[in-house]
């Protein structure tokens, strides 16, 4: 499971460096990565998983979802007059 996590994180981060030039603010790019990780790990939850996997997923959900939930309202307020950023943020609700 740790290998899958490492591969997932590599793919997420590499998509930003190999994709077309991205003009979004760095805090929005960071939020997007955090939010996508939150959604990924939340989707991995399954009661039938071994306890070790459940604990790893719970830890990841707390880490990523907690930060995304805290940051989203702050970023919405900060970028309320930026239509491009507002559109990006509208895809998330925590």
Give the tally of β-strands: 0
Report on the biggest sheet: none
What is the radius of gyration computed over CA atoms, rounded to a whole number of angstroms?
A: 15 Å
> How much beta, percentage-wise?
under 5%
CA-based shape:
elongated
**Unreliable stretches, pLDDT < 50, 5 or more residues?**
none
What's the helix-strand series?
HHHH
Structural class call reads mainly alpha
Average pLDDT value? 87
Helix content: over 70%
Number of helices: 4
The quaternary organization reads as single chain
Quick summary:
Residues 1-19 form the signal peptide. With 94 residues, the protein is mainly alpha-helical.
Give a structural overview:
The chain is built from four helices and no strands. 76% of the residues lie in helices and 0% in strands. The longest helix is centred in the C-terminal third of the chain and has 28 residues. The protein has one domain. The protein is elongated. The model has no long low-confidence stretch (mean pLDDT 87). Helix 2 runs antiparallel to helix 3. With 94 residues, the chain is an all-alpha fold. Keywords: Signal.
Helix and strand arrangement:
Layout: H1 2-18, H2 26-44, H3 51-78, H4 83-89
Keywords: Signal
Signal peptide: 1-19
